[in-house]
Amino acid sequence: MHKLLSSRSRENRYGYLFILPALLYMILLIGYPLIYNFNLSFKNLDVMTFRGDSSIYVGFENYKTLLADEVFIQALRQTFVFTFWCLIFQFTFGFILALFFSRKFPLAGLIRGTILIGYMMPMSVTALVFKNMFATGTNEGVINYLLSVLGAVDPASPIGWLIGQQEALWAVIIANCWVGIPFNMLLLTGGLSGISEDIYEAATIDGANSINRFIHITLPLLKPAILSVLMLGFIYTFKVFDLIFVMTKGGPLNATQVLSTYSYRLSFTEYKFSMGATGAVILFLCLMVVGLFYLWLVRNEESN
Prior knowledge:
By secondary structure, this protein is mainly α. It is built from 13 helices and no strands.
């Protein structure tokens, strides 16, 4: 018995040694910046108080000021609008493609791999490509050119995708969906591959049609994968920065301003470092609430 306990203790020590590098990485590169950012949000640090660190603690004054800022409220609202529509389109088309590619047919792997190129490309490159595609002139942007060829747009008055307040938000939504749809397809395809064909065969023998099999077999068994996809999609979309920054920088007239770009603007354009940190903290808290809600759903699902 003593030897068994000694062996387990030795294994535990080895286990702690193996996870130590990851723990140090989390503390240094994630934990410390997070704590520093929280601390910064309670100060009045800006370009005037940065030199010599003459800032003082102001409590929740930065939060009160930011929540009274009309641009911040607009950015917060647009962040949720941007995330909502991206999740709707990404999940819907990703699910359809996952169902399509779950069937075996020639060149399925090649076509699926080609679609994944949109996800594998760097976000800044994707943003530059779509920025050129959404250029205003019919002879400049391929989107307006194709619409004019189809007769949907008058060549003399092309759509101002990146200069119109309503159009600009939809332009960045479309660009983000280009990246998100392959990601959703990839994860959902993995979930579909884990469902045994024997279940479908048994249901077919019992007289279930394709709709019944989809509703009563595919969706229930795919629920964990769907929750994971929606959770990850929300996190990646809610904190998006580089796509919007490259395409519009939050313009025109803050029409595409979101929490991440507005926090960047406060910190590195207006040099209001504490205000920018406050915006980043609010962004973090929103994501933390969603993360805790997801953990509650998973725990509730496992208990049932």
